Amino acid sequence: MTTTAHRDGHTPAAPGTVGPIGYSLPLSPSGKASMLTPPPWHFCGEILMVDYRVDPDAARRFLPPGLDPGADPGAAAAVFATWQWCSQDGAELADPAVCQFSEFLILLSCTFEGRPMARCPFAWVDQPVPMMRGWVQGMPKQFGAIHRTRPVTVGRAGSRLAPGGRFDGALSVHGRRSVEASVTIERSTERPPALHDVPLAHSLVFPEWVPSAPPRTQLVASEVSDVEFSLIWSGPGHLTYLDRLGEDFASLSPLEVRTGYVFTYGETLHGGRLLRE
Amino acid sequence: MTTTAHRDGHTPAAPGTVGPIGYSLPLSPSGKASMLTPPPWHFCGEILMVDYRVDPDAARRFLPPGLDPGADPGAAAAVFATWQWCSQDGAELADPAVCQFSEFLILLSCTFEGRPMARCPFAWVDQPVPMMRGWVQGMPKQFGAIHRTRPVTVGRAGSRLAPGGRFDGALSVHGRRSVEASVTIERSTERPPALHDVPLAHSLVFPEWVPSAPPRTQLVASEVSDVEFSLIWSGPGHLTYLDRLGEDFASLSPLEVRTGYVFTYGETLHGGRLLRE
Amino acid sequence: MTTTAHRDGHTPAAPGTVGPIGYSLPLSPSGKASMLTPPPWHFCGEILMVDYRVDPDAARRFLPPGLDPGADPGAAAAVFATWQWCSQDGAELADPAVCQFSEFLILLSCTFEGRPMARCPFAWVDQPVPMMRGWVQGMPKQFGAIHRTRPVTVGRAGSRLAPGGRFDGALSVHGRRSVEASVTIERSTERPPALHDVPLAHSLVFPEWVPSAPPRTQLVASEVSDVEFSLIWSGPGHLTYLDRLGEDFASLSPLEVRTGYVFTYGETLHGGRLLRE
Amino acid sequence: MTTTAHRDGHTPAAPGTVGPIGYSLPLSPSGKASMLTPPPWHFCGEILMVDYRVDPDAARRFLPPGLDPGADPGAAAAVFATWQWCSQDGAELADPAVCQFSEFLILLSCTFEGRPMARCPFAWVDQPVPMMRGWVQGMPKQFGAIHRTRPVTVGRAGSRLAPGGRFDGALSVHGRRSVEASVTIERSTERPPALHDVPLAHSLVFPEWVPSAPPRTQLVASEVSDVEFSLIWSGPGHLTYLDRLGEDFASLSPLEVRTGYVFTYGETLHGGRLLRE
Q1: What does pTM read for this prediction?
Q2: Domains of chain A: total
Q3: Which CATH number do you get for residue C92?
C-alpha cells in the first residue's frame, strides 16, 4: 500500500509501481518527503485590499480564451495578505517557521459563461511552499517582499480598527519597491468586497522541457469551502505602482483608485475544477 | 539651528559645532540620516511567554554588581514577541517594511535595592534597527529568526484565543533551531505575568576600540510609560532549549517549565535611568 | 506572430490564440512577464563536493523504474555550489540581485540502459527562479540556506586553493542546520569526480490539481553542452547529516565518507531528453 | 582570571569584578557569549569600486572637525565588496554561515593634519555582526541588500577578468533599489585606487540613553596591517544613485563618474587610534 503518505486519499504520483512516490517532488520511498502536501489546505488571512480601475483593453489582454471582461471591464483590486495556513491534519501549525506567509496579488474582474469570476494576472509571496503551490493551481505566484501594517489593540504603535485608522501595504521585488497602498477607515460593513467574493479562474500551464506536442493549458476554477469573513472595514484607498516590473505589469497601472478594505478572511482550498481544456 | 532633525529635543551629537550631526550614526549635515530616531519609541507586541525555572546559581552568574537574585532565585521566562513600533511622530507606520520586527528574549528574576526587576541575559531580533536600539539601551540583542503562530478569528488555519487553543514559538540562530515553546490555553486573567510587569535592568557597555581607561559599564533601568495589557490567556507551557548557542546560554536551560501566556502588550520607551555607575 | 517574447524559438504557451502567453507563469500579453526564460541557460559554479556511501538498499528505493543501481550501488555525493547564471542573451548578468544562487544537492550513482548516470533525490536552493526551474526539469529543488567558504588569494581570512586548505559547506532548512561538510586539500588532478561527470536522470512530475487520469511521470535526462572543469583540488572529506529532515532523507545518511573536491564548473543546459514515459 | 574568553588579551568589560563579562554584549559568566570577538579581525574582499565626483561643498558638510577637504575636494568612490572574515584564531571559517558578508560604502577624499585619508559617510552591510562591529569602530554601517557579479573562469555565465569584461553592483535598502554601478574592464595595473589606499577616519559616537553631559565624539583612524592587493583591473565606470535614501545621501549624488576598478583586497584590522577627542 503506497497511500500511507497521502493524508486525504489523493492518488500518489506512481501508484502501484516500484519506485519513489509523492504528491510532489521530491519523490521518496515513503512519499513523506514531498515538498507539498495534497489539498485540502486551510487559510486564514489578514487582508488589506484596494479597488481600482485599469484600462479595460489592457485588462482584456490578460484574459485567456473562455474568460470575458463582463459587466465591469477594467475593475481591478490590489490585495495584501498575511496568511496562516495548514494542511488537513494541521501539522504545520506546530512549526511557526512553516505555516505563515505574506502575499500581494492583483485581481481583474471577468466572467466565465456569464458568471462573475476574478482573474489573477500577477501574485507574489515570500515563502517557497506557497509559491510552488500557486503554480500547482495555475496561480502565477512569484517571489517578493510583502509588508502590511497591522491593527493594534493596545498602545500607540499603530492604528486601531476604527474610523480614522490607517493601514499600509508595500511590495518589493528583487530589491525594488514596486507597489504601495493604504486604506483610511471610515466605516464598517458586512458586505465583502466584490472581487474577493467570486471564484478565481486560473490557467494550469507547465513550461515545456522535453520536445512535445504543444503544451496544454487548462482553464480551471479553484474549489473552496468554509469561506468566512470578519467585519469589513472600509474607506478611501490609495494605490501607487512604482517602477521596474516591465511593460505588462505597467499596463495595469491604476487609472482611478477607489475604496479600500481591511478585514480577516478564512477559506479551505480543495483543488481545481476544469472549466475548459 | 541644527535641532530640526531632532523630533523631541534630544541633544544632537555635535551641538553648536561645524560638522555632521545625528542621534546616532550615520552623522550627516541635517542629522536626518541617523539610523536611529531618539526616544520615545512606541511599541505594540503580540506575546507568547513561558515561565520556567533555571539553576539559581547559573542565574546569579548573569547578574552584574547591584542586582540580587531576590525572593525567587531561578525564576525565568522565555518571551516570543511580534512587534509593531514607531517614533514619537509615528512616521514609520507609513512604511510597513520598517515598523515591524520579531523578538525572542529571556528574563531572569532579580532585585535592585530590594525592588523586583528583570534581567535580560539574551535577546534576538530579526531587524537591524531594533538590534542596534537594543545596544543603545544595554539590551543584548543579537540577530535571529523568530516565529510565532498567531490566533485566528475565522477559518481553520490556527487556534482561537480560547481554552484549548495552542500557540507555538521558535527561535533559530545562524540557521540552527535553538528554542521551541508552546502554550495551550486553559483560562484568562487580568493579572500580567510577574516577569513582564517589572522594570528591566540593563548594562550599558560599549566595546573598547581605542586604548583607554577601563571601559565604563553603567547599570540602567528602562523608563517606560503607557503600559497596557490585553486580557491574559494562560495554560500549561512547554519549552525546549535545543543546541548550538554555547555553554553560557545552555547554563540557563529549563529545569522546570510552568505556565505559558498569550497576550498583547503596549508601552512607550523614553530612555534610561542610571541605577549605578 | 507571438514569438517576440521568446528569445530562442521555444514555442510559447498559447501559440496562435488570443490570450496571454509565456514560457511559464505569469502569462501576459507580450509574454515578457514570464518568471522563467526558456532554456538554454548558462551556469558557472564554485563547487565543494564530498563522495560518500549510503546503504545500497536505501539508495535503490529512490530510483524510479528505468534506473538501476549499476556497478557501484550506494555511491553518493553531497554537492555545495555557488552559481552565477544567465539566459541565452546574458541579460540577467546586469542585475546581480538576480543572476546568482547557492545550492546543495545529493547525487546517487545509477545506470540507464547500462550507461552511468546520477539521480538527485534531494536538492535545495536559496532563490525562487532556480527552485522553479528545477521543477520544470524534474529536479526536486526546495528552499534552504546554503553557505560555502570560498578560497582567498590575498590576506588571512580563509584558505588558498593549495594543499592544507580547508573549505566548508553548510545547509539549513527552515532554520534547522541539516548538513555540514568540509574538504581539506591534499592534491590536484584534472579528472572530474565521477558523479559530477555523468548525465542527471530526473522525473518530470507535476502535482495533480483537477481530477484526472493518473498523473504522468516521465523519466528525462538533462541535455547539457559546453561543460568545462577547472583544475580539481581534492583531499579527505567530512560529511555530517544533522537532524530534522525526515526518515527518507535520513535513510541516505553517510555510512562512509571518502574524498572531497573543490573546483569550478561551467555548463549550458538546453532542455530535457525523454528516457522513458 | 577572567581572560580565558578573550583570545588576544583584550581587557574584558568588567575585569576583576563579580558579574558577567565580555568584549561586547551579551555579557555572560565566561565572556564567550559576546556577539563580537575583539580585534584583530582578518578580511579578504572581492571589490568593485567606481571613482566619482560630488559637489565639494556637499562633501565638506560631511567632514567633522579635524578633517579637511584636502587637495581634491569632491573626490569620492562607491565600493561594493563581498567579504570573508575571521577572528585571530580563524574559528569562524568553519561556519560559512557566519564568516561572509557583503558591503556597499561611499568614501570621500579628505586630509587630517595634511595627510590624505578617506571619510565614509554611508555604509551598508547584509549581516548583523559586521554592522555592529562597524559602530564599534565609528563606521556608520546600516543594513541593506548588496549584490555584485563575480568574474568567472569557466563557462558562459559571466565575464572573465580581462578587457571587455563587465561587472555590476547593486544596493537595495528596505526593499528600494538605491545604487547601481558597473565597470567595463580595459586594462590592468598594480597601482591601487587612491581612495582605497589611505586610512579611514571615523567618528566614535554612541547615542545618549541616560541624561548626561554632552555625548563625546572621538575622531579615530583604523589601524590596519597585512594590506594586500591583487592585480587591479580598471576601465570606464558607471554609477547611478536611485531614490529614497533622503536629502543627505542625495547631496552626494555623482556629478561626474570616472574610472571603475575590480580587484581583491586583504587586510587585518587591529583597532583604532585616537586622532582627536
Answers
A1: 0.94
A2: 1
A3: 2.40.400.10
